[in-house]
Amino acid sequence: MTVLIAGAGIAGLSLGLTLYQIGVPFRIYEATAVLRPMGVGINLQPNAVRELLDMGLEAELDRIGVRTRQLGFYSKLGKTIWEEPRGIWAGYAWPQYSVHRGALQMMLYEALIARAGADCVVTGVRVTGFETGPEGAILILSDGRRVEGRLLIAADGIHSALRAQMYPDEGEPIWNGRVLWRATTRAPAYFGGGAMAMIGHDDLRLVSYPISDPDSDGMVEMNWIAEKRFPLDAAWKKEDWNRAADIGDFLPDFADWRFDWIDVPALIKGAEVVYEYPMVDRDPLPRWTDGSVTLMGDAAHPTYPVGSNGASQAILDARIIGARLLEHGITPRTLEAYEADVRPVTTAVGQANRAGGGPDGVLQRVEDLCGGDFDDIDTVIPHADLAAHAARYKSIAGFSIDELNARPRTIAEGARIPA
């Protein structure tokens, strides 16, 4: 009755921790021989943090992350468009965290190994395909092994081999013309620390937030993402977490972005290494589940990183799968119920991100209306409209304050699947 999981990223590890918590046998298969802390900063929204706390990981999150206090949007001239509190400062019952993606992955991995034992994650094996039938699923590995399980969950990312088998004609991820450069830099904290900033507009922007608390000198480890739009026929189409960039390709575009609270050129020049990759997603799928096999995380619903929602949704996927297992047992019905819950939500989020309906859509609106130059933002976009825009995305993504605070636990405390 084992559940097989393809991939030991944030999605797969969160699912492993959930299955251990509710007493479901599982095993994770990961292509990487040795897990290392890859990537840069990400954000965890309160709806996902709630689930991590329900897995007993609050101390670990406080050790590796920063409780985010504020999100702000600023024009290319550094002028304030909109600022709002986040996490517990906004009235949520749970915090929001800014954290290094690799640190989060390693924390989840170490917690899982400590609880379930080292043999629950098999590394150095690449998944290549699956078979599904009335008795369960078979995971096919690159070394020729065929592993039998009752259910199989594909958590193997945007290049999922199992998704590719379900949809062999889908092709490569879809590039939207934007290139991202990501790095961390030791830099002065702004606005007291714990503050996210999004600056610019659709063609050129910078996102920054600290992933450490200020030290005695007021310095933090600042995660930043510089973004620039290119023609769609430009040759920026290879996704790679480890592709080192030349800052000369984009630093001149930000040369004048020096404001009284942040020095963007200094931030860029202060990074030891900068990683480059294009912004890509995939079209929503009409179905994730094939018998005893389903998709989760980026294998199911990769989206643009504009709403700080990708890792959070992967964690939520894991918890919803766990909740449906408690209801339906280790059966394909669980997978159908999970998909029915999650696919409409993630499809709406992905479409909102593509259409500029994410929270950062206000940046381009201000650029179009006044070129980013104003004395009073209320004369450009009324404060009520900005507040409504911010609230709308939270509702679409499932973390509006009142709704989340009132929602029952996804998995009841102490719930276990019958032996």
UniProtKB/TrEMBL annotation:
Keyword ATP-binding among UniProt keywords: no
InterPro entries: FAD-bd, FAD-dep_Monooxygenase_BioMet, FAD/NAD-bd_sf
SUPFAM superfamilies: FAD-linked reductases, C-terminal domain, FAD/NAD(P)-binding domain
Entry keyword Oxidoreductase: yes
Keyword list, A-Z: Monooxygenase, Oxidoreductase
Any Pfam family matching the protein: FAD_binding_3
FAD-binding domain span: 2-166, 287-350
Domain of life the protein comes from: Bacteria
Protein name: Flavin-dependent oxidoreductase
Organism field: Ruegeria marisflavi
